[in-house]
Amino acid sequence: MTWLSRLLDDDASLALRPATVDDAELLADIVMAATEAQGRRPEMSAADEADWRKGFAGWSRQTVEQADPGNVLAVVVAGGQVVGRLRLVRGTGGEAFLRLAGIQLLPAWQRRGIGTTIIRGLQDAARREKVPLLLGVEKDNAGARRLYERLGFVHVGEDDEEHQLRWTSA
């Protein structure tokens, strides 16, 4: 059993698997669909959308090909179907941490507890490892921020685009 699969060991209906280069286009589609469903996708021409999608898919392929154990790109599977994307970053050295660097679910799979289950699994991992769980949430994504705060994350800073949140088991 991999570290990734252990995050959800209490929920047999959900699975996380490492992304492959063949998932790159699908992951781009998931991000576009999730952002659009939240009403957060900027207006783009068809050409700009194609360029963005190509660039995101290329970044996803590169992330997978570099195979950095501290930077995990995963596919969320529910009921045997691909329903989302998850990116995790592990920090070591000066301050060890676990960072939720991105989670997106297809609109039809949102508000079913999948994101909450994944985040609680990350909290359990952070608790076991005695490290904080960090994340950034876009300032225009109030729904996600409410979810994170409900799950015990606290605001620790911000930049022009994101609120920085932190969860610790203390």
TrEMBL record:
GO MF entries: acyltransferase activity, transferring groups other than amino-acyl groups
InterPro entries for this protein: Acyl_CoA_acyltransferase, Bact_Acetyltransf, GNAT_dom
Keywords for the protein's UniProt record, in alphabetical order: Acyltransferase, Transferase
Superkingdom: Bacteria
Location of the N-acetyltransferase domain: 14-170
Entry protein name: Mycothiol synthase
